[in-house]
Structures are given as C-alpha cells and as structure tokens.
Design brief:
484 residues, six-stranded antiparallel β-sheet, 41 strands
C-alpha cells in the first residue's frame, strides 16, 4: 500500500514537473515582415517537441537550429539564426505579405503558403489593398488621432496598468514588436510617418490584441474579428462665407453625389471639411441649405452634358492625353472608365498639330477613347487594346508597377494576357511585340493574381514563372504575387 502511494505521488510530481516544462510565453512574434522565434538551447526534449507541434516546425528546422547553423534552407524556405546571448537564439524567416492581427503567431505557419492560399485575396482586400475613394474619421474625441505634415499620432487613453503597448497595422506590415508606444500619465502615445490613405490597425497590450475603443470606424478582417480604421487626410474642402447658413453638405462623384453624408464644419471664415481622397480627378459641389452651388474659389468647372456644371479637383499626378491630326475636327473629347464614359465633359484643346488634355489620374489600368465630332475612335498611337469591334478600347497603365513578358513566340500574330486582374477577358489585354518579346506594363495592387497568356487563341501558362496552381480544367494557372 505504501509503495502504491509513493508511485501515485511520483506520477503527480512527474505531471507537475512536465507542466512546469511547457514552453514560455511570447516565444514567437512577427517583426518587420519576419516570423521570429526566441529559442533556448537548454530546453528539454518535451519542450522541443511542443515547439515543433505548436508551430508545425519541420524536424530539419529544429535540428539545424540546435546545431547553431547561421543560415539554412528547408523546403525552399530560408531560415537564419542569431545568437542573442548564451544559449538564447533567434530563429527567423521572411514572411509573405502581412497577416491580419487576429491570426495568432502559432497559426502563421499554417497560412504562410505564398502561392496557394486563397485567404490572401480576402486579407489584402481588407487591409493593405483597398479601393476606397474617400474617407473621414469618426473618433469619440479628436485628440485620439492627429495627422500633420505626414506624421500620424495615435493616442490610446487609459490602459496605464499595461506593462507594454504596441501598435500594429497595415502601415508597418502588421509587425507585433516594431512600433512600441510610450506611456504617458493618461495613456499611450506614438507618432509615425505615414502617407495619406486608409489604414487598418490594432493595439497590443501585454500580448493581447485590442481594437481602438475610441474609434468608431471598424472593418471585418475576414478572420472573425475587426480592425480599427483611420484615414490620413490629403485635402481640405473650404467654402468661404455663408456663415448664416444652417447646414452645408459636400457632395461629389467620389461619394455618388450623396446629399446627406459629408457635413461640413463651421469655422470663423465659413465652412471646411478635411478628407482623404484617392488620387484622380473628382467632380463636386456644395449644398448650402438645400441650394446646390459650385465652388466660388475654384475656376476649374466642366459641364456634364446634362445641363449641370460642376467644380473639379485633381489629387495626384497628371497624364497628358494627345491625339495627332484631325485638324479639321470641330470638337474632340476624351472619354473613358475614369469619367463614366461621358463624351460631353472633357473637351481637348487644339495645340499646333494635335489635340491635348492634361488630366489628373489615379494609378491603375484605364480604358479610354477619343470622341471626334461624335465619332468614337481608339488611340491610333497606342497598340494596347481590350475588346472587339465597336467595343474595342485603348488601355493605358498609369504608374505601372509590373510588366508581363512572354518570350519564345516571335511568330505569333496576337498575344493576350488575361487573369483575375481583368475578369479573365479573352479579348485583352493585347500585348506589344518589342525587341523579340511580347510585353505589357500594368498596375496591380498588392495581392495574389492568377493569369495565363492566349497565343493566337491557345491558352498557355507562363513558361518563365515556376509558380502555378491547379484549376477546374486541369491545365493550371500561373501565380503572381505583388508585394505591398
């Protein structure tokens, strides 16, 4: 009986000892685009096994780490180690595009499959890549966020009991350790250099993710949680005078001419509204106590061809459209996807032997045509087109960031690149043959894309791209990643 009790005590002690040998907290974090493990070379076999199981680390990775190899490659992934102090090593690898904050560090390994993971499309859409045209902040108090001269200052009120606080978001690749906040007498503060735009973020209080309690704007992160959303402004609409008005509304093409949404703020000189606007040209008006007016301080106005006159502003860089010849034409207009194909708005000016129109554009792939005395034509100086017959349009990439190229098909009559970026259209984008290579520059937002080439009607994957994935036709698609 005594022996039995001793044996039971030994089992209890062994269970307690095993529990005491579990991995310490916070051994894994994300920093500056890397997955980083802090590993103690004195860990027991049980702890090493737990490390492997928890983070799904290959046995070769584990053994190479404990051999203290400075760098090694396993399954195509490059790992590096760095000695921090005696028996403490940092093991790290580069991550694919950044992870949303609701993905725990011990699950990142499961998602880090750069050519196959369909969740990346959703992730990029909800964080880094965004087609938001405009935005204003909705804070419980303006003191919790400010943006001045490219410096964004975040303030988290309270939580002074926390030992450490970090901010993580689309502005720092969702790093969990890069942006430490400073403790003040009433909360936590940090200032970061940021460009105008829309950003998703969260705070990390002692390892716990926290959405900003003072920010009413939020967005689903597609992983079962929400991110806080903040806008860094790049323009302020101002209307001088009208101080006796009860209400002034800003409305424009950027918000589909909503007559209730954007209420302007009264000041000593009149009215104003700071806002984020996506690059491009925007039409707008003010509604002063239900009366629609153009901006009296903006000389740039255009008719929309429907009896209305609107004010216009441009955010970003200018592209000059040119049409050679047509000297006898009475009127030439530019029309395209960027102005709703309105042929009665953007009239070009005749200068010497060409028609010219400077136009502020957003980075992207834009379709367009010229309307010459009512006749629609493609750009004769631009061979890149999409569509067929009367529906054929010229295509221009403004601020392109990637060039599709296809070698080895010098005898082809027509080569088209198509994919998830253009709805798999079979009639464009038509590529140009330059110096023995078919190519086309495009603008692609950060994220994952699948694509193919159509060579004289035959679909092929990219022979110079090793990354591909299966499709429903068992023919495969080439895979392309555009980094943020």
């Amino acid at each position: 009986m005594k022996t039995r009790w001793i044996y039971m005590f030994f089992l209890l002690f062994a269970g307690f000892y095993a529990k005491a040998q579990h991995l310490p907290d916070n051994i894994c974090h994300v920093n500056n685009g890397k997955l980083v493990f802090t590993i103690n070379l004195n860990w027991t076999d049980e702890q090493i096994h737990e490390l492997s199981q928890t983070y799904e680390l290959d046995s070769t990775v584990i053994s190479s780490t404990f051999k203290e190899l400075p760098s090694f490659t396993v399954n195509g992934i490059v790992w590096t180690t760095k000695i921090i102090k005696n028996n403490i090593i940092e093991l790290s690898k580069e991550l694919s595009p950044p992870f949303p904050p609701s993905v725990p560090a011990n699950q990142i390994m499961k998602f880090d499959i750069p050519v196959l993971d369909e969740n990346w499309i959703k992730k990029v859409a909800s964080t880094t890549t965004d087609n938001t045209v405009y935005g204003i902040n909705n804070l419980t108090n303006a003191k919790y966020f400010s943006y001045i001269n490219d410096t964004a200052t975040f303030f988290l009120y309270g939580y002074t009991y926390a030992r450490e606080m970090f901010i993580s978001g689309s502005f720092n690749n969702w790093s969990t350790r890069q942006s430490a906040m400073a403790l003040t007498d009433s909360g936590w503060r940090i200032s970061l250099t940021m460009k105008p735009g829309k950003y998703a973020y969260k705070f990390i209080a002692d390892g716990n993710w926290l959405r900003d309690p003072n920010n009413k704007l939020k967005e689903n992160d597609t992983y079962g949680g929400n991110n806080s959303i903040v806008f860094c402004y790049n323009y302020t609409f101002r209307l001088k005078g009208y101080t006796q008005a009860g209400k002034v509304i800003l409305t424009g093409s950027f918000n589909n001419w909503n007559t209730k949404e954007l209420k302007m703020q009264r000041n000593a000189e009149g009215w104003e509204l700071p806002i984020f606007l996506k690059e491009g040209t925007h039409a707008y008006k003010f509604i002063v106590d239900k009366e629609w007016i153009t901006d009296p301080d903006n000389k740039i106005i255009h008719s929309d061809g429907k009896g209305n006159v609107n004010s216009f502003i441009g955010i970003g860089d200018t592209l000059v459209f040119r049409l050679q010849g047509y000297q006898n034409a009475l009127r030439v207009a530019l029309t395209g996807s960027f102005n709703g194909w309105n042929p009665n708005e953007l009239f070009m000016e005749k200068i010497n032997n060409e028609w010219v129109l400077p136009y502020v554009m957003a980075a992207g792939n834009h379709e367009y045509k010229f309307c010459v005395d009512g006749k629609w034509i493609t750009d004769p100086d631009n061979p890149v087109t999409i569509g067929k017959g009367d529906m054929m349009n010229s295509v221009i990439a403004f601020k392109p960031n990637y060039t599709f190229k296809l070698n080895h098909y010098a005898d082809a009559r027509e080569v088209i690149v198509t994919g998830s970026f253009n709805g798999w259209r079979t009639d464009g984008y038509r590529m140009k043959f330059i110096n023995g290579i078919w190519e086309i520059p495009v603008f692609l937002a950060p994220g994952k894309y699948i694509y193919k080439f159509i060579v004289d009607g035959k679909w092929i994957t990219d022979p110079d791209n090793q990354y591909w994935e299966g499709n429903e036709y068992n023919t495969g698609n080439s895979v392309l990643w555009i980094e943020p």
